[in-house]
Specification:
The protein is mainly alpha-helical and about 450 residues long. It contains 17 helices and five strands. Helices cover about 70% and strands about 5% of the residues.
Length: about 450
């Protein structure tokens, strides 16, 4: 009870700070505008034709994309592309810093990071243009346009590009004048907006038309699974390994002062949700291409596409397609290793420790330290990847066995938990400046 009261005081204290209150209200206002914009249809697109096309899709990437856009894609609104071009460009720029040394240097100071943000924005415009053109041509060929003309095609493409740019602008405004990272907040709000529909799907699948005992039991099981998944994701996101670090001794007069030990926090899930998104996108790409082309291959090609589609896994009537889940698991682990390897450099960390006169107890500076850091990295990657697989696979297994087709899966849960935790920490830091108890504070 005391912790609950403390949490309530933390929320009230946050609202008492004028700056925080204004930032929260500004963020909510922008997010409401985003959801209202998601209801504005793209001019010239026949929504009935597109809805029929979307309903017949089996590619997992289509559902993932629609989840990220908050349903804007399935409704074909002006925000159909949402912030996906910006997210993709951010990942590309992060990967490019490993390949291009000049980009890596830009990240070391504030002016350089601002330039990187501009480059990311420009790249997102290019990516949104590429996606809009590809989708517009697909609509044109499939007769999804109300008017089959080049002008109508240009209007559709321009509308989607402008919509993506407006959302990026809104995201930057939230970052500057609101709470949390703007792009992440829009992504979070998009995902949460799908929850009512998902809850209705669960009700229709497991509770509708059943007696009160069976419906109540189903509700208890659903709530237990949701609570377990949320708790598991929180632990996965917050868990880290402490690598002990000892600072060198200092001589003061005739005494030798030994510095207190420190540690390097190494996150268990350092790759976050990136491996799951990469693996899902890669496996869904063949089916997505086939869907846009409008041709369904038969024979071996058709069987391969069915194996790669998450919608066919763990289906009791066709368990042979579940082999795709094994491929999916291997890809998640591979991408976790790949992403961590380019974001964590043991050699660079060992050199930084050596430069400041620190060392890891039991390991000599140099190669021994590098090998130890690499071994810790490898072990945590495996643990983090397995944790990601558990979170990602539970909704897929339940969907295959019971037909609970919901957009709220492991990927969205990781995003929701991560964004909420980081946003609360930012609010707490601002509240703490006023010497008040924050939301996460224990006292």
């Amino acid at each position: 009870m005391a912790s609950t009261n403390t949490g309530n005081r933390g929320v009230l204290n946050a609202l008492k700070v004028p700056e925080v209150r204004k930032r929260i209200l500004f963020t909510l206002l922008i997010l409401v505008v985003v959801r209202l914009g998601a209801q504005i249809p793209v001019p010239g697109v026949s929504r009935d034709v597109f809805s029929n096309w979307f309903a017949n899709q089996t590619a997992g990437a289509v559902s993932l994309f629609d989840m990220i856009t908050g349903g804007s894609f399935s409704q074909m609104s002006v925000f159909a592309l949402s912030i996906t071009p910006y997210i993709t460009s951010s990942i590309i720029m992060q990967l490019m810093t490993i390949v291009i040394p000049s980009l890596e240097e830009l990240q070391k100071d504030q002016d350089g990071r601002e330039k990187m943000q501009k480059y990311t924005f420009y790249l997102s415009i290019i990516l949104s243009a590429v996606q809009a053109v590809a989708m517009g041509i697909g609509f044109y060929r499939n007769n999804s346009l109300q008017t089959h003309s080049v002008f109508a095609l240009i209007v559709v493409i321009a509308s989607m590009i402008v919509g993506a740019c407006v959302l990026v602008f809104f995201g930057e405004e939230i970052t500057k004048h609101g709470v949390g990272n703007g792009i992440s907040m829009i992504l979070l709000f998009n995902i949460i907006s799908r929850l009512p529909q998902d809850m209705k799907t669960l009700y229709d699948t497991f509770m509708k038309g059943r007696n009160i005992v069976k419906a109540g039991l189903a509700l208890i099981v659903i709530l237990a699974i949701i609570i377990f998944m949320i708790a598991f994701v929180v632990v996965l996101q917050e868990a880290y390994v402490k690598i002990p670090v000892q600072n060198s001794s200092k001589i003061q007069g005739r005494r030798t002062l030994r510095s207190q030990g420190d540690h390097i926090p190494f996150k268990i899930n350092s790759a976050n949700v990136i491996p799951v998104i990469f693996a899902s996108s890669l496996m869904s790409m063949p089916g997505l291409i086939v869907s846009f082309v409008g041709k369904t291959p038969g024979g071996v090609g058709g069987e391969i596409i069915r194996v790669l589609s998450q919608n066919n896994w763990f289906n009791p009537a066709a368990m042979q397609y579940t082999v795709g889940a094994v491929i999916y698991a291997l890809l998640v682990i591979a991408f976790a290793y790949f992403y961590t390897s380019i974001t964590f450099n043991p050699q660079e960390v060992a050199e930084q420790l050596k430069e400041r006169g620190s060392f890891i107890p039991g390991h000599r500076p140099g190669k021994q330290t590098v090998d130890y850091l690499q071994s810790v990295s490898n072990s945590t990657i495996v643990i983090g990847a397995v944790g990601l697989l558990i979170v990602a696979m539970v909704p897929i297994v339940l969907s295959g066995l019971f037909g609970a087709d919901v957009s709220f899966g492991g990927t969205s849960l990781i995003i929701i938990v991560g964004v909420i935790i980081e946003t609360i920490r930012q609010v707490d830091s601002k509240v703490g400046q006023r010497h008040l108890t924050g939301i996460l504070s224990k006292k």
